[in-house]
């Protein structure tokens, strides 16, 4: 046993282990939660923790924060992962917590990836949280409002952790340089690239730093090109089946609506690089063409369908240019949701007046009885009028005229608006 301990002490501890903070002051970033007067900091300073959920991306410090909180409040720390733990592990943790509670020692039960527990397992926490057997700290990368039981959420505060900022990552570099006893062996451009590669993930960033130190000679300085040979490019953080999927498609849609073509290209590229099915993007872009461009540019829908067909013929990567072309066209097209507004207004009206028959004058009269009942009587064939417009009413008589479609003064709808105004004036004139 002694030999093993001595041998273990000679092993080099990983940089991430040596850099792990042991006090709140050592945590970088998260000032909105841990700064003076911030909500989580107030809870810590009071020495009384209530159960809460830490929601944030990978590598933002959720596990480290939970450990420090247990130490700061003199609580026993127990960590479980929902990926590897089951009902038996939870039952054992609760039983042990009850024993320690009898001796006056509280237990902070940290559950990593808590959203991976099913609804029944989440319900199992409730009595132990309510009676104070454990103080539950759950960590999740997914939106708690979607993934956690409402009963559990009602008993826990939710604190949102953000990806580490560039300033916070620079602080990690300074800390690593101090522990390694030498500056990070990269030039300014490579340093910026390292920060960009981390994408706010502190754990991944520290591993990058360790790789650079381990694979670089003492007097060697890496530039951008040599750095990329040393470190591996990180896979995009994107889950097609969870909240990130909906956040990015929302960002794409709203960027297009706001005519910010460059931002739309970026969000679309993020989705494609993350493994999104391009056909999903094309379906959403086709929807956008009819929903947000509409008749302000009638060619938008045609181009959307053409881009879809082009991609199906070419595939990836060549077909992605058709997607890019469509995004640029939609982003720069005049916008109008008048068609969408008109359609939903018409549907509401159809529900309200669902049993009215068309006016008799526009009904066909193929039989004598129908003719005697007045079907088709008084109908004016529009092509027989000088204007090609009769001005007759086509709504049910008991309903009266309704106006659903209100084109905007943009793009082709400007011309449509003039036509409608002309016909409305002519209708009034003919029906005096």
Structural commentary:
This protein has 22 helices and five strands. By secondary structure, the protein is α/β, with parallel strands linked by helices. It has a five-stranded parallel β-sheet with strand order 2-3-4-1-5, sandwiched between helices. Residues 1-11 have low confidence and may be disordered.
Shape call: elongated
> How many whole angstroms does the radius of gyration measure?
32 Å
Total E-strand runs: 5
Q: Show unreliable segments.
A: 1-11
* Overall pLDDT level: 87
Structural class: alpha/beta
What's the arrangement of strands in the largest beta sheet? 2-3-4-1-5
| C-alpha termini separation | 107 Å
Q: Give the strand content.
A: 5-15%
Largest sheet: 5 strands, parallel
Number of helices: 22
* Residue share in helix: 40-55%
SSE sequence, one letter per element: HHHHEHEHEHHEHHEHHHHHHHHHHHH
């Amino acid at each position: 046993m002694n030999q093993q301990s001595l041998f273990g002490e000679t092993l080099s501890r990983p940089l991430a282990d040596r850099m792990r903070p042991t006090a709140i002051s050592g945590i970088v970033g998260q000032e909105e939660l841990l700064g003076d007067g911030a909500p989580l900091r107030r809870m810590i300073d009071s020495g009384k923790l209530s159960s809460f959920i830490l929601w944030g991306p990978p590598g933002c410090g959720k596990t480290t924060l939970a450990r420090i909180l247990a130490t700061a409040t003199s609580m026993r720390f127990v960590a479980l992962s929902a990926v590897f733990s089951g009902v038996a592990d939870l039952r054992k943790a609760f039983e042990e917590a009850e024993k320690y509670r009898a001796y006056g020692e509280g237990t902070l039960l940290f559950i990593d990836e808590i959203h991976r527990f099913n609804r029944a397992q989440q319900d199992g926490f409730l009595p132990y949280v309510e009676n104070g057997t454990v103080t539950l700290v759950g960590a999740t990368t997914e939106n708690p409002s979607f993934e956690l039981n409402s009963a559990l959420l009602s008993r826990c505060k939710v604190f949102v952790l953000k990806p580490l900022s560039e300033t916070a990552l620079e602080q990690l570099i300074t800390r690593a340089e101090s522990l390694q006893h030498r500056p990070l062996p990269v030039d300014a451009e490579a340093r910026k690239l390292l920060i960009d590669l981390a994408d706010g993930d502190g754990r991944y960033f520290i591993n990058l730093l360790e790789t650079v130190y381990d694979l670089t000679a003492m007097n060697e300085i890496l530039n951008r090109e040599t750095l990329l040979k040393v470190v591996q490019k990180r896979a995009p953080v994107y889950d097609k089946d969870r909240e990130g999927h909906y956040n990015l498609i929302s960002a794409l849609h709203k960027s297009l609506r706001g005519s910010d073509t460059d931002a739309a290209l970026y969000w679309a590229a993020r989705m494609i690089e993350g493994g999104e099915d391009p056909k999903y993007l094309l379906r959403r872009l086709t929807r956008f063409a009819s929903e947000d461009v509409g008749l302000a540019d009638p060619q938008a829908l045609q181009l959307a369908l053409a881009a879809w067909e082009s991609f199906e013929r070419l595939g990836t990567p060549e077909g992605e240019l058709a997607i890019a072309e469509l995004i640029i066209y939609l982003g720069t097209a005049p916008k109008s949701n008048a068609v969408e507004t008109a359609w939903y207004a018409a549907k509401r009206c159809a529900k309200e007046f669902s049993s009215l028959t068309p006016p008799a004058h526009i009904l066909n009269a193929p039989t004598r009885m129908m003719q005697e009942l007045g079907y088709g009587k008084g109908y004016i064939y529009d092509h027989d009028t000088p204007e090609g417009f009769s001005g007759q009413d086509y709504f049910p008589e008991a309903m009266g005229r309704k106006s659903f479609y209100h084109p905007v003064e943009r793009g082709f709808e400007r011309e449509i608006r003039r036509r409608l105004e002309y016909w409305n004036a002519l209708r009034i004139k003919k029906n005096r």
